[in-house]
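REVIEWER CHECKLIST
Item 1: Sequence provided? yes
Item 2: Single chain? yes
Item 3: Sequence as submitted:
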Amino acid sequence: MESSVSLACAAGGAAVAWVVPTYRNARPLWRFIERFAGGEAELHRAEMTARFPQWGGGWLGVYTADNDVSLRGEAFDLVVVDEAAQIRPETWADVIMPTLADRDGRAMLISTPKGKNWFWQEWIKADGVTAKAWNAPSNANPMQNIRRAYDMARTRVSARTFAQEWDAQFVDDGGGVFRDVLKAATADPQTQAMPGHSYAIGADWGRTNDATVFVVADLTLGAICHVDRMEGTPYALQLARLKALWQRFGECTIIAELNSMGGPQVESAQRDGLPVTGLTTTNATKSAWVDALSLAFEQGAISIIPDQTLIMELQAFESSRLPSGMVRYSAPDGLHDDTVMAAVLAWQGAARAGPLFYE
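Item 4: Structure as written out by the authors:
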């Protein structure tokens, strides 16, 4: 709808800007412009502008917020900011807002919420007179496939993620990620495989000031059943302990981090015959993996052994909002998250094994 409105304004003689976070975000919008305005507008693909000389000289330009220099000095009747919560607050205040002054222009800010940042501040300041605000959950969309996806997501993502991404709610940035940790600490420790049970091992490699941790998940019970944590241990001995653990738990799947020192460790383990699957940790993948473990706690689908280090790190683990709008998960300053990340990786092993305990 917003795309159609912006094109209509440009065709009516207005100067319109559509601002997106990055160039990648601009491509779907430009395809829309080419499809619906190509017959009446002069399109300049390199500059991503559409001009309507026969309709009063109006035009629409697509801009990226990560290169906001091109916006400076412009004057617009309408600026549409797409995924506004993901752009920097100074881009909105110092760059975009001044472009509206000369023409007494209007702004339309559209976005999925990303915590209580500047976009949230603009949303709550809307008084219904000088500015209006609204939100709508995904199931308000008349398309049936969107409604089906909404219902499916309700049971597959954490409550925090569902509230933000599907119900369009502004949720707090910080705070604990894992709920009911003590309530889940009912699993019996295991030192070797139980007959008929399947397992996965998560390996988080230690760095200069971190521990190396191997966590074993009992896929049959949906339980974190063993934690092997070591500090200052030579790499060769770490691999020997991992191999011994793998043999005790039925030569199961091993999921390990590839980043940094993880790459050489994974290669060494594979040369030694261990079936290690290496995963590259980015902020996006880490968020998805942490969310999967968080959901398991919320649904009561996981139990953990009463290991004090594991409990403490799970309870302390927190989320914070980056300037880009992304969420970063980590331990608070001065604390560690080694056992948490090993548990997260072990749970990824469980996810790759299939829905063994979501039935």
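Item 5: Key structural point noted by reviewer: The mean pLDDT is 86.
Item 6: Recommendation: ____
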